[in-house]
Design goal:
353 residues; Rossmann fold; Arc Repressor Mutant, subunit A; YaeB-like fold; five-stranded mixed beta sheet
């Protein structure tokens, strides 16, 4: 079974070639060197030589935006392609020790590229791992975090070690509530460059924890930090992965849905999509004092739904019993409570989205 391995690339290969007086443009000589001395030729080949299973492994090399980095990435991709692997070298724009925008642009671009490859690979049902041996030290730190967020293996090998070291996986799923509760803010800051003052004014009405995920650039603008970008990419991926999960409506909820205009449906869709994600559903559910049906989400949202988890073998999934907004019926339902017995199971209808 194929597997994708993403390697961050430094310049150790170039140093080795120079030390052995091998012309980097002599691909045959470079290939022989990598084949015979894989564990000494470069940090990347040292690790890969210990983890590659067979030619079905697909290799991505993420390289810095420097002539030396691009050369090393190209040589590694060419060598492994000649060995029968599907291999590709990708340059990360502005990831350079000469760039003033290393954090705001270079690391962000690196995290985005990592996340994009991981998401695409996982959606195709293929396993993915990160070879975190080469590259800048800051890349190593962020790749570890990306691995934890997406729950994929991250490994490395130190030049003085003989064995591959895998970073331990966390048994804890990260809480997506911050991104769900402040979805409009994250969409806003990502769609255009925002000044420090704009962000400060906008953030006054949002969770103060967001500040930990922002970087104030010297150009006068504030951006999502590389860490914030990784979390946001994962959040959006989770929403997308659950798009096809079934949602059922009671007869009452279906009547409401059919009379909603397009704008109202989209507002409720922003509630329904995360409702499908079990971890987020658990974190955002509020159990009411009246009735036996919980409401989602809690907090300061106008659009909410009363729902049950329906475990019938035919109609398995989340079932929305009532759509509610403060301007409609929320206070009424809150006061009297919503009871499961009042809704006929055989009248549940699957929502087509």
């Amino acid at each position: 079974m194929s597997r994708v391995i993403i390697s961050s690339v430094g310049t150790s290969l170039l140093r080795s070639l120079v030390g052995h007086e091998i012309d980097p443009e002599d691909m045959q000589a470079v290939g022989r060197f990598l084949e015979v001395e894989a564990q000494k030729a470069s940090a990347e080949s040292n690790a890969l030589s210990r983890v590659i299973r067979d030619k079905s492994d697909i290799l991505y090399f993420l390289v810095s935006d420097t002539p030396e980095g691009q050369l090393c990435g190209r040589l590694l991709a060419q060598f492994y392609s000649a060995q029968g692997h599907e291999s590709e070298s990708r340059v990360i724009k502005r990831l350079s020790n000469q760039s003033s925008g290393f954090v705001q642009y270079g690391l962000r671009n690196y995290v985005q590229e990592l996340s994009d490859i991981i998401i695409k690979t996982q959606r195709n049902g293929v396993a993915v791992e990160i070879n975190n041996t080469g590259g800048f030290k800051a890349q190593v730190a962020y790749a570890n975090v990306v691995g934890l967020i997406f729950r994929i293996p991250v490994f490395y090998i130190h030049e003085n070690f003989e064995d591959i070291v895998y970073m331990p996986k966390t048994p804890i799923q990260w809480d997506m509530s911050l991104f769900f509760e402040n979805e409009s803010f994250f969409e806003w800051i990502e769609e255009d460059a925002r000044t420090h003052q704009e962000v400060k004014q906008r953030q006054e009405s949002h969770d103060e924890r967001i500040q930990l995920l922002l970087d104030e650039n010297t150009d006068g603008y504030t951006y999502l930090s590389p860490l914030g970008l990784a979390y946001l990419s994962s959040f959006r991926d989770e929403i997308e992965k659950h798009t096809s999960a079934p949602v059922w409506l009671s007869a009452q909820a279906m009547n409401d849905w059919q009379r909603f205009d397009a704008s109202t449906r989209e507002k409720f869709n922003r509630v329904i999509r995360p409702l499908k994600i079990e971890g987020l559903r658990r974190a955002q559910t509020k159990h009411m004092r009246q009735g036996d049906v919980p409401v989602f989400p809690q907090g300061h949202r106008d659009e909410r739904v009363y729902y049950i988890e329906h475990d019938d073998t035919v109609q398995k999934g989340v079932c929305i019993l009532e759509f509610t907004r403060h301007e409609w019926n929320y206070e009424k339902l809150f006061s009297r409570g919503v009871f499961r017995r009042e809704y006929s199971v055989d009248k549940f209808i699957q929502l087509s989205m």
